[in-house]
Specification:
Blueprint (H helix, E strand, L loop, with lengths): L3 E5 L5 E5 L4 H10 L7 E4 L5 H12 L3 E5 L4 E5 L8 H5 L12 H8 L1 E4 L13 H9 L3 E4 L4 E4 L8 E3 L5 H11 L5 E5 L5 H13 L2 E4 L5 E4 L8 E3 L4 H13 L3 E5 L7 H10 L2 E5 L2 E5 L5 E2 L2 E3 L8 H11 L2 E8 L10 H6 L3 E5 L18 E6 L7 E3 L3 H13 L3 E5 L11 H7 L3 E5 L5 E3 L1
Parallel strand pairs: 2-14, 3-13, 9-10, 17-19, 18-19, 22-23
Antiparallel strand pairs: 1-23, 1-24, 3-5, 4-5, 6-8, 7-8, 10-12, 11-12, 14-16, 15-16, 19-21, 20-21, 24-25
The structure holds uridine-diphosphate-N-acetylglucosamine and phosphoenolpyruvate.
Uridine-diphosphate-N-acetylglucosamine binds next to helix 5, helix 6 and helix 10.
GO cellular component, one term: cytoplasm
Function: Cell wall formation. Adds enolpyruvyl to UDP-N-acetylglucosamine.
Protein name: UDP-N-acetylglucosamine 1-carboxyvinyltransferase
Length: about 450
């Protein structure tokens, strides 16, 4: 789906949509299948670009992948894993951040790997220094090339003690996926403990791994000689659920998000309630709605789990433009995640961005030249505009703003949104949004 999206705003989103498995878990579980000596099966898999990219990368490595997108089932058979040709793999440069997580499994299976340059959202520098240091600590040899990285483990991989400078999600997953079959014990301190990581640990345990998680962010992994396949149902995508919740709030709507689950969304739900949103947790999902009256401004800091996650920040900021008073948002996870507010200002929002830390959390960006705090003054009516989607969550936020704005907006580059939001055009239609898609050739298709 490429092209231009026309959005006639001003209609509250109303109805029901379904959210399936988490983008930030499913792709990692697919990589974990490489470690098994038998086939694995993953359920509740959403039809999003990141899943497609990882399926293709696994295919290039000889994994047989059978995907039933409708049923959300993916079967992965890694029994014939082989090194992929560099040229083929390189075609995936810039496609997502997941290739870096192939290192550990491929080193165990083949003794070497080639990793293309990474993609993902440009919301900061996103270095991979933790990943490479971790791999070196396990005994890997890292050879950075002009494009991509070649990695080998001539002496095998041995368990080690790792302390993360920051509880990075990817670096924690890197450690898990490498340690489970390394020789001996690995201890990881200051680990990330996001629900998606816990679900990955559940998958690895099903495969035969021995992993314990302490309350002080220490994860211990006892390496084992072999792992089997797994059967697992992915946890729900709490980012997508939070995004639709924010869309309901910003458009004064009422959306039942089937599949959304409470435990992983506790922090979001608290914030949603403080802003003045209403929700009802049901057995099969969560209903989110604007109860009428004014929304309240809040002070918010993004943080690692169990804090308010950074990926919820961008959609919620759009709703905050409709809250009365001054809201303050301190982004402590990424140094450059407020670029999307330029377009919101163009639509009438009053948002100022600051280099200073406007919050009390310890922040790596203090006294550095990063625009990582925002002050939002509301409520301000939003007006339609022409918008270019900058990244996944920023793009969805622009879509929310267009839906809340009076008039007809034109949103370009919506393809990026497919990376993390399954069938979002169908969902918008189900919620009564007035949207139409003009394909690249200029044809307009009503949805
Ligand atoms: C595919 C996926 O799961 N993406 C999620 C994952 O990204 P990802 O795993 O890339 O995010 P990390 O948790 O690793 O990044 C957190 C912070 O650590 C820094 N860092 C990270 C690694 C490193 O080697 N060096 C370094 O400095 C990053 O620049 C960032 O400032 O977690 C993020 C934080 O919840 C989410 O926003 C992303 O949606
Ligand atoms: C930043 C995100 O993802 P990625 O790490 O895949 O870029 C996101 O999902 O908001």
């Amino acid at each position: 789906m490429s092209g231009l999206l026309t959005v006639e705003g001003g209609t509250p989103l109303q109805g029901e949509i379904t959210v399936r498995g988490a983008k930030n878990f499913v792709s990692k579980a697919m990589v974990a299948s490489l470690l098994g000596e038998e086939a694995s099966e993953l359920r509740n898999v959403p039809q999003i670009r990141d899943v497609e990219v990882v399926a293709n990368l696994l295919g290039l490595h000889g994994v047989s992948v059978e995907h039933d997108p409708q049923a959300g089932v993916i079967a992965l058979d890694p029994r014939n894993v082989e090194a992929a040709h560099v040229a083929d793999i390189d075609a995936y440069a810039g496609s997502s951040r997941i290739p870096i997580l192939f290192c550990g499994p491929l080193l165990h299976r083949l003794g070497e790997a080639f990793i293309p340059d990474l993609g993902g959202c440009r919301i900061g520098d996103r270095p991979i220094d933790y990943h490479l240091n971790i791999l070196r600590q396990f005994g890997a040899v890292v050879d950075k090339r002009v494009q991509g990285i070649h990695i080998s483990a001539p002496g095998g991989l041995r368990g080690t003690q790792i302390h993360l400078p920051y509880p990075s999600v990817g670096a924690t997953e890197q450690t898990l996926l490498t340690a489970v079959r390394a020789q001996g014990l690995t201890e990881l301190s200051n680990a990330a403990i996001e629900p998606e990581i816990m679900d990955l640990i559940a998958v690895l345990q099903k495969m035969g791994a021995i992993i314990s998680v302490d309350t002080d962010r220490t994860i211990r992994i006892e390496g084992v000689d072999r792992l089997q396949g797994f059967r697992h149902t992915a946890l729900a995508d709490r980012i997508e659920a939070g995004s639709w919740a924010s869309a309901a709030l910003a458009t004064r709507g009422d959306v039942f998000v089937k599949g959304a689950t409470q435990p992983e969304m506790m922090t979001f739900l608290n914030t949603f309630r403080k802003v003045g949103g209403a929700f009802d947790v049901r057995a099969d999902g969560i209903r989110f709605w604007h109860p009428g009256g004014e929304l309240r401004s809040i002070v918010l800091e993004t943080d690692v789990h169990p804090g308010f996650m950074t990926d919820w920040q961008q959609p919620l900021v759009v709703a905050l433009t409709q809250a009365t008073g001054l809201s303050i948002v301190h982004e402590t996870v990424y140094e450059n995640r407020f670029g999307f507010t330029d377009a919101l200002r163009g639509m009438g929002a009053t948002i100022q961005i600051y280099r200073e830390c406007l919050g009390g959390l310890e922040c790596r960006f203090d006294q550095r030249n990063f625009n990582h705090s925002a002050v939002i003054s509301g409520p301000t009516p939003l007006r339609a505009a022409d918008i270019e989607v900058p990244d996944l969550r920023g793009g969805f936020s622009h879509l929310i703003a267009a839906l809340a704005a009076e008039g007809v907006s034109r949103v370009r580059g919506i393809d990026i949104i497919n990376r993390g939001y399954e069938n979002f055009m169908d969902k918008l239609e189900a919620l009564g949004a007035k949207v139409s898609l003009a394909e690249a050739q200029g044809q307009v298709a009503l949805v």
